[in-house]
């Protein structure tokens, strides 16, 4: 047996299907080989299920609005943003992410929504970590910055605090009676919010009488994290830790397990961190800021990666790091390029990578090394490509391509828009609106040509002509006009109301002028202006633009209109003598030309020739009669 | 997974059918096939004349499948004189044209001047391009830089068999980008078109007289010893998917630093491989 492979791809669904096939020969016909498709394997290279989700659309629209704002502000500042502006925009981006999470969580949960929520939460965490590492002013302590990251990103501290306080408010009981009271205090300590921890502790109903609590409150008040920005204050912090260690070892907190536990955290006891991980926190990195603060308060950026890996190994036993963990390590190693690459390789995360990179590029920060490649442009372009796969997002995709800053962005857009699927007239018009807005000339030509050909194939001549006129190229208009003359019924030409709104567009092509004039002839006839109609018909015949096949129509019309006039009482013909003579000359010329043209044409076309000859004969007779009538009218 | 419906079965060629190509949707549902019997056949899907507007029609998007649709052979192109090895429709902006090549190294380009009349195709180019077999054709889609360029030059350094050639989508580049499958390698070339303005102004109407090509090899993609059979670019020209003779598909992507790396490998499932005793893939 032999095998071969075939693959098909569905651009819009983002799937590729690989088939193998086997060939076999049957006993009856051993020489004939038949093929059978087997081994169908479907690979989706784009998780379109999330991209088509309405909440994802909302997120994309929100991000686009913030992105547009960022670009307009940056343009005023010479392409860069001030740090304060970046932080504000970051906050907006993260708020949009959190809103999306809230909306999805309100929906029924399924595999897709769960994945999407995980992606969004990871994006929120990473974004604020990027901000903490790359988007802070120089000369700050990384320890403090990571604590800010914890306060902004990790909700467990806020959630616990709110749970305790809200329950107390609603039930009217003291909040220190809540079973999560001490967890809430610990959580505030873990994110470095000692003010909140102090407030919670001092609000305890037994605080006034409890010496241990008062000692702890005093410790909380002395811990001012911002002082760590100045390395000279490190000794003060270490001194406080030493004091706590002495209090603990001397048994000052022996009657309160909770306070003793808090002390063990404050002195950087690794066992305490393990206990917290098992009971309170779900993710190891949520303990990283506190671990660094209490175990390595003087750490600088160069140490953070190793410290984080130590913490991971301490807490997560027997498991390999997942993608998010790897990305966090990479961010902390200051290889932001690799971190962005890891994010890009995660399904449905391109939106995140593109906007984050845009923010990083907007900061005038020496810490960010560009590696001399335009990653921002590449990512924005890739992101735009994914948006182009969803019809509702085309307009937004165009915006991203243009903002990418690529030199060939317009040409790229021109090509991309022209290749978008045109399912119907509505979509074609929508695309043309985009073309008009951004001056995409070639896309406009391609789309209008595609629609023209479509209607030509369907013999919708009026529509085909309309689209050809929108294309505005003489060649196409002429081609369609000729086809109309060849294939459309004369009655349908007379019903093409589009000629009323053509204005001067009919001048695009001589064939179109001819059609326009023929339409006018029909209108004049309908309204009873026979003389003008006859004159128009004469002009049409004189123009000589009609294909030979259409001449039968013209001659037939002329014969009818003149015959009707001849049979009336009025001997005056609709056309004057000179015109009649011209027409007769033209008939003779046409006859001669037809004889030459049709030499060698097969016999099966003789019928048409016979019909034409008979019409010429009839018309000639009618013209002679008209001439005679005119002569008679002159004499009477 | 979608269900495949057998729309029609045609036995029109007198030998093995090597390639099947679709024309651009702008021209409707048009199919071309080439065969060992030295011919190229052009087929068109037609619909019966009906007043029912809900039925699909041929066109840009034919919409739903309708069993009353029929495929009709419109023309057989028989000028090749030898086994026709490849056919490719030209980019749609050049019109309805198709290039063919055969086992004797001859290339013929046909054009249907009237896209509604597929019975009439005229030859716009005919020539012996290679001394030996020509196995692959590709049109450049670059409409900003001499877009009517097909593969004509032979690359002197290529000693292995060339199995496939493919131009990258233009994406507004100022040059043409070409991927050539040679043995187990994929070689990527940039082709620059230079115009001699003096010659151009001296009434040389054939642009071949006043243009010259400069090729520059920019990358070689190599992974293993299996022969590369097919390659395909993505729309932006920074990713190549390649089918290898060992049945594996590899996706190569140009990274931020302009290095090409394998980002994904698709392998046939082990169960089916062992069941059918896959001995290699050939076409």
UniProtKB/TrEMBL annotation, chain A:
Keywords: Membrane, mRNA transport, Nuclear pore complex, Nucleus, Protein transport, Translocation, Transport. The keyword Nucleus applies. GO terms for biological process: mRNA export from nucleus; positive regulation of DNA-templated transcription; protein import into nucleus. Component of the nuclear pore complex (NPC). The lineage of its organism: Eukaryota, Metazoa, Ecdysozoa, Nematoda, Chromadorea. This is Nuclear pore complex protein Nup85. Functions as a component of the nuclear pore complex (NPC). One of its GO terms (molecular function) is structural constituent of nuclear pore. It comes from Acrobeloides nanus. Belongs to the nucleoporin Nup85 family. The keyword Protein transport applies. It holds the Pfam family Nucleopor_Nup85. One of its GO terms (cellular component) is nuclear membrane. It is found in: Nucleus, Nuclear pore complex. Transmembrane segments: none annotated.
UniProtKB/TrEMBL annotation, chain B:
It comes from Acrobeloides nanus. Keywords: Lysosome, Nucleus, Protein transport, Repeat, Transport, WD repeat. One of its GO terms (molecular function) is structural molecule activity. Its main location: other. Belongs to the WD repeat SEC13 family. Pfam families: WD40. This is Nucleoporin SEH1. GO terms for biological process: cellular response to amino acid starvation; positive regulation of TORC1 signaling; protein transport. InterPro entries: Sec13/Seh1_fam (IPR037363), WD40/YVTN_repeat-like_dom_sf (IPR015943), WD40_repeat_dom_sf (IPR036322), WD40_rpt (IPR001680). Coiled coil: none annotated. Signal peptide: none annotated. It is found in: Lysosome; Nucleus envelope. GO terms for cellular component: lysosome; nuclear pore outer ring; Seh1-associated complex. SMART domains: WD40.
């Amino acid at each position: 047996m032999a095998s071969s492979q075939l693959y098909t791809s569905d651009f819009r669904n983002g799937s590729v299907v690989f088939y193998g096939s086997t060939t076999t020969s049957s006993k009856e016909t051993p020489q004939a080989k038949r093929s059978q498709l087997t081994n169908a394997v479907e690979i989706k290279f784009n998780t379109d299920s999330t991209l088509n989700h309405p909440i994802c659309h909302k997120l994309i629209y929100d991000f686009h609005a913030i992105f547009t704002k960022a670009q307009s502000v940056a343009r005023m500042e010479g392409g860069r943003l001030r740090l304060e502006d970046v932080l504000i925009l970051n906050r907006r981006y993260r708020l949009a992410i959190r809103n999306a999470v809230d909306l999805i969580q309100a929906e029924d949960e399924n595999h897709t929504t769960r994945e999407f929520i995980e992606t969004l939460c990871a994006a929120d965490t990473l974004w604020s970590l990027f901000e903490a590492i790359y988007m802070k002013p120089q000369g700050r302590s990384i320890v403090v910055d990571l604590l800010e990251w914890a306060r902004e990103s990790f909700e467990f501290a806020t959630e616990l605090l709110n749970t305790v306080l809200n329950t107390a408010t609603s039930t009217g009981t003291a909040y220190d009676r809540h079973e999560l009271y001490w967890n809430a205090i610990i959580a505030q300590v873990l994110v470095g919010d000692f003010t909140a921890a102090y407030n919670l502790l001092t609000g305890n109903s037994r605080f006034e009488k409890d010496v241990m609590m008062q000692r702890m409150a005093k410790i909380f008040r002395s811990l001012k994290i911002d002082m760590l920005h100045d390395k000279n204050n490190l000794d003060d912090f270490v001194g406080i830790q030493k004091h706590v260690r002495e209090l603990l070892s001397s048994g000052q907190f022996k009657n309160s397990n909770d306070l003793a536990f808090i002390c063990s955290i404050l002195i950087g006891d690794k066992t305490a961190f393990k206990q917290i991980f098992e009971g309170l926190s779900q993710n190891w990195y949520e303990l990283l800021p506190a671990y660094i603060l209490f175990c390595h308060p003087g750490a600088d950026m160069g140490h953070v990666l190793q410290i984080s890996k130590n913490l991971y190994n301490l807490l997560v036993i027997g498991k390999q790091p997942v993608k998010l963990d790897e990305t966090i390590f990479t961010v902390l190693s200051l290889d932001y390029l690799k971190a962005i690459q890891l994010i890009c390789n995660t399904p449905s995360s391109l939106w995140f990578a593109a906007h984050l990179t845009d923010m990083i590029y907007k900061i005038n920060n020496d810490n960010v090394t560009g590696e001399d490649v335009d990653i921002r442009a590449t990512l924005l372009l890739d992101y735009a490509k994914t948006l182009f796969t969803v019809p509702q997002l085309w307009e937004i995709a165009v915006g991203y391509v243009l903002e990418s800053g690529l030199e060939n962005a317009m040409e790229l857009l021109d090509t991309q828009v022209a290749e978008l699927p045109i399912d119907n007239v509505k979509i074609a018009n929508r695309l043309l609106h985009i073309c008009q807005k951004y001056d995409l000339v070639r896309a406009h030509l391609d789309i209008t040509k595609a629609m023209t050909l479509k209607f030509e194939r369907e013999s919708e001549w009026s529509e085909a002509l309309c689209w050809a006129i929108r294309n505005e190229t003489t060649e196409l208009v002429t081609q369609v006009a000729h086809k109309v003359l060849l294939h459309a019924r004369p009655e349908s030409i007379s019903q093409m109301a589009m000629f009323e709104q053509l204005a001067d567009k009919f001048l695009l092509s001589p064939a179109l002028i001819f059609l326009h004039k023929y339409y006018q002839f029909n209108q004049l006839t309908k309204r009873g202006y026979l003389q003008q109609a006859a004159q128009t018909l004469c002009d049409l015949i004189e123009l000589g633009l009609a294909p030979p096949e259409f001449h039968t129509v013209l001659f037939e019309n002329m014969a009818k209109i003149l015959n009707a006039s001849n049979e009336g009482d009025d001997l005056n013909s609709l056309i004057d003598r000179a015109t009649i003579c011209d027409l007769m000359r033209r008939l003779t010329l046409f006859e001669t030309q037809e004889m030459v043209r049709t030499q060698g044409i097969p016999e099966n076309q003789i019928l048409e020739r016979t019909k034409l000859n008979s019409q010429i004969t009839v018309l000639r007779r009618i013209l002679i009669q008209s001439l005679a009538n005119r002569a008679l009218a002159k004499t009477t | 997974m979608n269900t495949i419906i057998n729309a029609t079965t045609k036995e029109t060629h007198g030998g093995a059918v090597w390639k099947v190509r679709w024309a651009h949707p702008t021209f409707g549902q048009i199919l071309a096939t080439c065969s060992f019997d030295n011919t190229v056949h052009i087929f068109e899907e037609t619909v019966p004349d009906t007043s029912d507007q809900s039925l699909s029609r041929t066109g840009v998007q034919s919409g739903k499948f309708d069993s009353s649709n029929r495929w009709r052979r419109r023309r057989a192109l028989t000028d090749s004189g030898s086994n026709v090895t490849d056919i490719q429709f030209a980019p749609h902006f050049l019109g309805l044209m198709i290039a063919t090549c055969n086992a004797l190294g001859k290339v013929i380009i046909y054009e249907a001047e009237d896209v509604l009349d597929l019975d009439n195709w005229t030859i716009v180019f005919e020539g012996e391009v290679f001394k030996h077999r020509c196995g692959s054709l590709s049109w450049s889609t670059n409409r900003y830089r001499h877009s009517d360029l097909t593969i004509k030059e032979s690359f002197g350094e290529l000693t292995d068999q060339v199995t496939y050639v493919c131009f990258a989508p233009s994406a507004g580049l100022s040059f043409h980008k070409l991927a050539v499958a040679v043995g187990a390698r994929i070689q990527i070339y940039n082709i620059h078109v230079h115009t001699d303005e003096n010659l151009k102004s001296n009434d040389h109407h054939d642009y071949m007289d006043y243009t010259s090509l400069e090729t520059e090899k920019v990358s070689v993609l190599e992974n293993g010893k299996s022969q590369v059979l097919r390659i395909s670019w993505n729309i932006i020209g920074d990713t190549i998917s390649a089918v290898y003779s060992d049945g594996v598909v590899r996706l190569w992507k140009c990274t931020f630093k302009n290095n090409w790396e394998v980002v994904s490998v698709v392998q046939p499932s082990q169960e089916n491989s062992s069941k059918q005793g896959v001995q290699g893939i050939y076409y």
